[in-house]
Amino acid sequence: MNTTTNAHIDCRERHVGIDIGKSMLDVCIYELDVYLQHPNTPEGIRTLLKKLSRYKLTRILVEATGGYERGLVEACTEKELPVIIVQPTQVRQFAKAQGIIAKTDKLDSRLIARFGAVMKPEVRPLNSKKVRYIRDLLSRKRQLNEMRTQELNRQHKAPAILAATHKRLIKVLDKEIEWVNQLLAKAVSEVTEWQRTYEILNSVPGVGDGVTFTLLLHDIDHFPS
User: Could you count the other beta carbons within 10 Å of the beta carbon of residue 63?
Assistant: First the structure.
């Protein structure tokens, strides 16, 4: 059953849905029923944005793909275009509510654009380079934590004569983790949109920097990456 009708759509608006592939960008301008396709390369992105600049765009919705969207989103942000990253699960839930049954798991550009036209998610711009830097720091923090856990597991199984080497490595990893935490705290404090949230989360008993960073970064996919 279709629970959301076209009455929710303002035809004066312009919503662009972009289905991201490793090599191609499939694009739909929903209200105009215009479809475009460009290579997911710097040149292809420049050409696409030049074409899109002809329209007064309300929102550009980009499917999160784990990295393939990065170049496009950075280019949109640099040109101050209203770009929003949407999670595939959000759009699938929307499609289900609309009574749309996808033939494959891949989201098409029209569905992504329709999601924007109906749901009208908020455009919340951030400095893309800063966000990418914070993402990279968080990724490194996770890697170091995993390495520390692995080394602890090895230590428990190792003969006593090797205990010292495991302890030394764990100590090194602890220092690296602390260093990354300091960089994260500094980076997050420099993002105006997060300063108040960071202070509130960090003031809650039992919620340390690790949990705070994770909660903040959980929301990062709504921003340019």
Answer: 25
